[in-house]
Design brief:
14% strand; five-stranded mixed beta sheet
């Protein structure tokens, strides 16, 4: 806690720069493509591509899970809390889920699964899909089970087969085009360690809320301190600000996000300089 005021000011400046540019994050965009206004940088952070505003959830976020490893209950409980944390940060309506894996509640929208699977092209392993269909037959998750996977690439590095996400939703065209998420299923392979399973769920949960994560395969090599900065610092800040902007400035969400972040952290920077 012995950080000097000047060092604190530098840290604030680094944070403000990081949340606006985040070179560590990407969606396979080149340096030339990401150059431009601050609003452009916010856009790429949210993986918006041609959309005008960040994606958001059409369904309440309620978590259901399924474990075929027999030893992932603690991981799944922690991952569930993480999903709910992101739902609250993004100002999405939140319904707390129960812990009963065999529940067929009709409003599960966020599925966390640990299983042994082999992807079938871009679709879910047919055997696993059939088992999950029986588990979640009348839920928003049923739609996600039949969607193509959304796999992240950074440069020429494409994520592997151990951690996959299957989102369902729709693109809303018009003045404020966006992607509205209905449900998501995330798969973590049983061959992953407990820590890697939890990281898989964190990585794809961030993606489910529109955040431009790096690949899971890349993040496996990062230390815990670096990961915490992103998952418990940068990402929730963006979600909280975007929720506010979507409510107050729906026609100018990205500009609003940039303005709030710049104002919030430039004020911190000024305080640090004044007291140094």
């Amino acid at each position: 806690m012995g950080l000097s005021c000047k060092r604190w000011a530098s840290a604030c400046a680094f944070f403000a720069f990081g949340v606006l540019c985040l070179p560590f994050m990407s969606s396979a965009q080149s340096v030339d493509q990401t150059a431009g206004t601050q609003e452009d940088r916010v856009r790429y952070f949210y993986l918006l591509h041609d959309n005008d505003i960040p994606p958001y959830w059409r369904s309440p976020v309620k978590v259901g899970f399924h474990d075929e490893s027999g030893n992932s209950s603690k991981v799944l409980e922690r991952a569930k809390l993480f999903v709910e944390f992101y739902a609250m940060a993004s100002a999405n309506e939140l319904i707390l889920s129960g812990n009963d894996e065999i529940s067929t509640s009709d409003d599960y929208s966020f599925g966390l699964v640990v299983a042994d699977f082999t992807p079938k092209g871009e679709f879910m392993d047919p055997g696993l899909r059939q088992r999950l269909e029986g588990l979640w037959p009348n839920t928003p998750l049923f739609e996600a089970l039949h969607q193509r996977e959304s796999r992240v690439s950074v440069g020429n590095a494409r994520d592997g087969d151990d951690c996959l996400i299957f989102p369902s939703g729709s693109h809303i065209e018009g003045k404020n085009s966006r992607f509205e998420v209905n449900s998501v299923v995330i798969l973590a392979h049983t061959r992953l360690s407990e820590d890697q399973r939890l990281l898989c769920f964190k990585n794809k949960t961030a993606l489910a809320f529109g955040l431009g994560t790096s690949t899971f395969d890349f993040e496996k090599n990062l230390n815990e301190t670096d990961l915490r900065r992103f998952y418990y610092g940068f990402f929730p800040t963006f979600l909280e600000v975007s929720g506010t902007c979507r409510t107050t400035e729906f026609d100018h969400v990205l500009a609003c996000i940039h303005r709030i972040l710049e104002h919030r952290y430039s004020d911190l920077l000024k305080v640090g300089i004044r007291n140094s």
